[in-house]
Amino acid sequence: MERADPLLVPPPPRWSESKKSPTAPGALGELSAAGARPSSRGPGEGLTPAEVRRRCRAGSCLVLCGPAVYDVSGFVRRHPGGERLLRGRAGQDVSALLRGPPHRHSQNALRWLEQYRVGTLGGEEPDRREDPAPQFPRVRTTQSVEHDSRTTKYSNKDAVFTDLDPDNDLVDWSKPLLWQVGHLRDKYDVWVHQPVDRPIRLFYSDFIEWCSKTAWYIVLGVWVPVLLYLCLHSYTAMANEDTRLAVVSTEHSVPVHKLLFLFLFLLGVFVWSLLEYCIHRFVFHIKASPSSYILITLHFLLHGLHHKSPYDGSRLVFPPVPASLLFGAIYGLAHLVLPNIIAKSLLSGILCGYIIYDMTHYYLHYGAPPEGTYLYGLKAYHVKHHFKHQKSGFGITSTLWDRPFNTLIPEDTEKK
Q: How far apart are CA 154 and CA 200, in angstroms?
């Protein structure tokens, strides 16, 4: 298991070595329904086994890890293993599953789970000397976090967010983060790759903050009409049979067949797949100099915020303005070396590849693909990139370019 940074994570709680507990790590139905007492070690209230069962029957998804109780109801659809997997473990102790096999959860995954802690099961703490439960960072939790309108307001009925703990976090979540992260210096790289389940505010201005967010359907609304225009214009120009491509000079040219558009379109999609990989790896994941406030801030604005809060739905797709600058540069470069109609045909494929990329990326975070499908495997692959393998797994829509560039995330090899 990965070692946690002592600057960011407090010492994990120790399981008692001298007390026995009547609770076993099996299904909750085997537990005693005796009343629970609040734990002095954990956040939230003490919960009885009967209360946990009642909540599960009501539709919530509560799991146990030792004496700690976690409500993961708001995360079940986002879990890479699927909703059925988590709901099938409702009311059970998942300590052994977190350790693996078949999958050993990373320290970031354990820290992520701790955000949903709602209480402690009653009774004395179990002896875990021979079967230790995963070690979690100790954090304080609450049902919501509210601030004044000049900063931000967090609310989520399904999730439990962690309160600001000045001793254990390096930023003040009640204020915009964009102006704070540059001061983290050499601690930034570790901090930004410890994900949390809460929205991020960047700016003090409400208007600028609103402009910095993009809903997934904005991508479709802005770029699909542009894509349709490029495709229609390019194909129509080639189908007129009066479009000719100069070979040596304008006096020596050959006619352009309309099927060339399909070839150029598919070539553009292929070119985007390489651009997707290169931008993600060499731009978004460039290591900012710890001594540069500006570079750290820029990195956080471009991609760091997504790794810090991977499920902030308003920051999962590329905003139209920077995307326009990117496509303008691509078209300008293509137009310098290619005839206009060829450049537009190629750009239409690149734009289509981008739309597929952004929609796929959003779905990998918020969708629930059926088990065994291509997107199911891709979702698990991308989650590994966020939680454990941040220096590999740069492909989003496929692993095509991870293979030749040797950045493919290794599969779990643990066996039962």
A: 9
Q: What is the mean pLDDT of residues 74-98?
A: 89
CA distance 126 to 68: 11
Query: What span, in angstroms and rounded, lies between the C-alpha atoms of 276 and 149?
Result: 37
Angle at 272 between CA 366 and CA 374, to 5 degrees: 40
Q: Which residues of 252-271 are buried (b: 16+ CB within 10 A; e: fewer)?
A: eeeebeeebbeebbeebbeb
CA angle 315, 316, 320 (to 5 degrees): 75
Whether omega for the bond prior to residue 101 falls within 30 degrees of 0, making it cis, is: yes
- The pLDDT of residue 186: 92
H helices of 81-215, in order, are: 83-87, 95-99, 107-114, 188-192, 206-211
The closest of 264, 278, 291, 88 to 187, measured between CA atoms, is 291
Q: Which residues contact 335 (CB under 8 A, 6 or more apart)?
A: 343
**Residue 46's pLDDT band (boundaries 50, 70, 90)?**
confident
Please state the rounded mean pLDDT for residues 366-385. Answer: 93
Residue 197, CA atoms < 13 Å, CB-side half-sphere: 29
Instruction: Using the predicted structure, report yes or no on whether residue 111 has a pLDDT greater than 80.
Output: yes
pLDDT of residue 61 exceeding 90: yes
pTM: 0.76
Rg (the chain; Cα; Å): 25
Banded pLDDT at 314 (limits 50, 70, 90): very high
Distance of CA 161 to the CA centre of its chain: 16
- Burial of 171 by CB count in 10 Å (0-12 exposed, 13-18 middle, 19+ buried)? middle
209: helix, coil or strand?
Answer: helix
**Residue 249 banded pLDDT, cuts 50, 70, 90:** low
> Which of left, alpha, beta for 385 (phi over 0: left; psi -120 to 50: alpha)?
alpha
pLDDT of residue 355: 97
Q: How many residues does the chain have?
A: 416
- Element of type H or E holding 347: helix 340-366
Asked if the model's pLDDT at residue 25 lies above 50, the reply is no
- Show Cβ contacts of residue 399 under 8 Å, excluding neighbours closer than 6 positions: 381, 393, 408
In angstroms, the CA 224 to CA 354 distance is: 11
Q: How confident is the model at residue 242 (pLDDT cuts 50, 70, 90)?
A: low
